[in-house]
Amino acid sequence: MNLQQLKYLCAVVDNGLNVSDAAEALYTSQPGISKQIRQLEDELGLRVFVRQGKRLTSLTPAGEVVVATARRALREIANLKRVADEFRSEDAGILGIATTHTQARYVLPRVLSRFAVRFPKVRLILHQGNPVQVAEQTSSGEVDVGIATESLGEYSELTTLPCYRWNRGVLVPKGHALAAIRPLTLEALTKYPIVTYDFSFTGRSAINAAFAAKGLEPNVVLTALDADVIKTYVELGMGIGIVAKMAYDAQKDAGFEMLDASHLFAASTTRLALRKGVFLRGYVYDFIELFAPQYTRKVVDAALAGNAPVDEL
């Protein structure tokens, strides 16, 4: 048994039991992967996969356990490398972060600028995507940290830390009639076409739920993944925008007004996610504390170990 066999095994599972796709992802040959998996099965004395002819159709019950064990083994091997990197060069390495556009554009710049001053030898890699993509990249180990408001809590292999709460506002052009309505109401919003977030964001569901609770139907004419795109179409006159309040900058968005809507919609919580069982480099702890000062190294370690429940905000 060797590490290559375990890597091939997990890659096949991660690629939907398609050996060709796994081979392409690993830059190797399909026959090579098939041979290594057969050798692993022979050594273990059991079948990992159910087969129909040459096609893999599912994992056997034993295969489920084998794959889970292989993943743990590969994770621990990766941990050994991280431990070596930490003690060989504590202030150098790579920090991978997966997050949504709103976090990357409006929250992380001030955090990462401070982090870069503290750790100039650490290369930052920022992946942007919707909440599901953020969760998948974090759970697969593609990045060190995931930051999003939705989806992270749905992955059992992740430890999630609630960081801060936020709400939404209504973005309108300067002088818009809605700006004169005090307090703003959902009924008033239904009189205008609305531009807001895509359905992949749970926050969008919260918006829909608020209207539904009053028996109202919002006229959503366009959806987007990020606030900057929403601003563009509001500026073009396609409708009013419902966005995260953090996405508004009074100086940069001088042509708009942000109307408070926190009394209309339920607040949301942004969370930071870490993959369970992974050794964290020292500078990852520093990044976490810069992003959410309540999470010191001691608190993070306790949460990862499951020794202390993380309180909701």
Polypeptide structure, described:
There is one protein chain. The strands form three sheets. The protein has a five-stranded mixed beta sheet with strand order 4-3-5-12-6, sandwiched between helices. A five-stranded mixed beta sheet has the order 9-8-10-7-11, covered by helices on one side. A two-stranded antiparallel sheet has the order 1-2. The mean pLDDT is 90. By secondary structure, the chain is of the alpha/beta class. It is built from eleven helices and twelve strands. Helix 1 (3-14) packs across helix 3 (30-44) and helix 1 packs across helix 4. The longest helix has 28 residues, at 61-88.
Describe the structure using short key phrases.
single chain, 313 residues, alpha/beta, 5-stranded mixed β-sheet, 11 helices, globular
